[in-house]
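Researcher: Please predict.
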Amino acid sequence: MQRLFENMNTVKRAIASRWQLMHQECPIPHAQLELLFTIRHAQPISFKQLAQQLHLTPGAISQLAEGLEQHNLISRQTDPKDRRIQCLQVSPDGLELLHRIENHRQAIMESIMTDLTDEELALWLRIHEKLLQQLQLDPATKQGKETK
């Protein structure tokens, strides 16, 4: 188990290092880029929904979004169902940036996994999906299952 934990940390650090090199070409900080990806996947999305999804305060979301707006990567729109709520959407410039970043990420992942067979990749994916399911369980619920 210790060896597995050490390997997971080593892989995480190595991939993070490659991401950092890629993000140096990006005009916005990493936190704003992650917010941009999140907005794209859930748009239109309110500040409150973003805060809940990312486990941040609405104020933190507002600060990050302000930087994205300054770079013309997102736009605000009033929610037609509730005019008090502002929703965010990715602008065409934001979509273009995300497309470039995704192409870079794809190239990095392909270079990392070039020596893995289709079977190894499928197994890796199944293991990671299983781990994600365990991590997404409510700790209180999981605790209850373990004690029974």
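Model: Residues 2-141 form a domain with the Arc Repressor Mutant, subunit A fold (CATH 1.10.10.10).
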